[in-house]
């Protein structure tokens, strides 16, 4: 049976851990050639090794997505290395300091917005420039349940994730007729080693309690939705926001 992404080239930012790593591995399993881009090069290299060990094709790339010149070079690297760009997952991000808005320092705010929001503009700008001449492509921007819901403690993160929803809509309206579909994925809280190691039992229980399904999500569950949206099976789906959240936002 032909693999769903055979012959396709994919770029995943923040591909060195968590959700991005799961997306990169699944894309490679389904036949895509994948650039695994991350600020943390070692993480990206480990994901590439896993992909190669499973018979897939991938290359690692060190990137700070908040630098537009570096983002342009990352897209060039992808096109030069694998011969094009068909799919992109703009996923790199940080949580930022946890405190309410009046306590946020100006520099802290700018940094979170640079890494989580401006980066996605830079990525889409150059990814679209690579995709549009071919008249096809698909982009997923990794938003969050905090792309529509709020919490007090992470105002810059909440703002940036809301902005990705708007950016996704604007880009989809502009480019869907030219063959490029753009969607946002909105995960609930995902069980990662970071969550496991940084939260005590009580905080973890409280976090789980926010999800009516009764547990946190898994990175591969977010990747499942992301791959569907990137695939040709989602050919009429563009410009929308897709929850994968165990009913968090249903409340
Ligand atoms: P999640 O659970 O959302 O996957 P992670 O923290 O595991 O969260 O993944 C986010 C990824 O984004 C990490 O691999 C991290 O190194 C990467 N990242 C963070 N900031 C940047 C940046 N400025 N440029 C590129 N990658 C980044």
From TrEMBL:
PANTHER family noted in UniProt: DEHYDROGENASES, SHORT CHAIN (PTHR24321), ESTRADIOL 17-BETA-DEHYDROGENASE 8-RELATED (PTHR24321:SF8)
Keyword Oxidoreductase: yes
Source superkingdom: Bacteria
Species this protein is from: Ciceribacter naphthalenivorans
Keywords: Oxidoreductase
Protein name: Oxidoreductase
PROSITE patterns named in the record: ADH_SHORT, PROKAR_LIPOPROTEIN
UniProt cross-references to Gene3D superfamilies, sorted A to Z: NAD(P)-binding Rossmann-like Domain
